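Quick start: read one record
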Amino acid sequence: MSEIPNVSVVMPALNAEKYIAEAIESILGQTFSDLEFIIINDGSTDATAEILESYRTRDPRIRVHHQKNSGVATAMNLGCRLAQGKYIARMDADDISLPQRLARQVAYLDQHKDISICGTAMRTFWHSKQHLIRYPEDPDIALCTLPFQMPFVGGSLMFDRRLYSERGVRYNTHVGATDDYLFIVECSKYCRVSSVPEVLYLYRSHPLQVTKVQNEQQQWFAKQIRLQQLEELGLQPSEAEISLHESICTWQVEGDKEWVKQIEDWLVKLKSTNLRNGKYPKSAFARVLADYWFAACARNARLGLWTYRTFLGSPLATDSNLGARRKLKFLVKCAAYSFT
C-alpha cells in the first residue's frame, strides 16, 4: 500500500456483531489492496467494539474510531473527514462487497472523468432468497431517476473525495435513514452520477437493519427529498399530486381505470414541465417517465385490453424502448384478463 491510499473505505457500525466480521473480511479480501479501512463504531452496546479491535491489531489498513451513538450520517461525515484516499467508498456493516468491487469502481471512475460518484448493481439476500437489482449506467438516466428514487443503493457508492473536501457535500444528519439519498442528490449538482453494471455488492435484507426499523420515518424523509426536486423542476404539486407521485415511487400503482388515467396525467405533466424548463435532459427524462408509465400499466393488466390500448395511446409511450417481445407479453397478459 502507498503512504497515501487510493481508496478510503468508510463503514459505520452499530450493534453489528452478528454480521460485521463478514463485512470486514469482504473488504480485506478485495483484489484492490491500496486502501485504508475506516470503521466508525457508533456507540455499540454489543460485542462490535471487541470484534473491531481484534481486526485492527491484525491489519494495519484498519483504523477504528469510537463515538457515542450519533447516527449513520454523523459517522459517515467523521469517516470522510478522516479519509485520505482519492476516492471514498461506503460500506455497510451487514453487507458484503464482492472481491472485484473496489477495483471495478476505481477503474470506472478513472476512465469516466465526468463521473465522480457511482454505485453498482447488487443482489439482495436473506437466507436462501436472492434478488438481482440493476441500476442505470447512463448518467442522464441516473440523474432523471432522482425525483423518484435513488439510482443505486447507498452502501455500494464510491465517490471522488473532492466532493466532500472541496464542494462541501455532507451527509445530512437530520433526514434519518435517507441520508444517502440526499447525499447523492447533492452530489448530482456538481457531477454526473452513474452505476457500474456488474453485480459487485450483496445487500443483506434482515429484520434488524436500520432502513426497516426506521421505515415510516424513512418514507417521510424520502417524500420530502422528492418534493424538493419537484419544486426545483418548477412544480407546486397539490396534495393529490404528491400522493400520486408517492404511489409511483413506491410502486403502489394498482387501481381502477380512473386511477390509471390520473397516473398518466401526472407523468404527462412532469414531461411537459421539463420540456419547458429543461432541468433534466429531455430525452432521458421522457424515457424514465415512459418506464414508470409502463410499470403502472403492467401492474393494472387485470383491467384487460383497455390497459394495453391506454398504454399505447399515451404520449408517454412514444418514448418507451419496450421491445417487441415485452410488448407482446404485455398484450397477451391483458388479453387473458379480457377473455376470462
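The radius of gyration is 22 Å.
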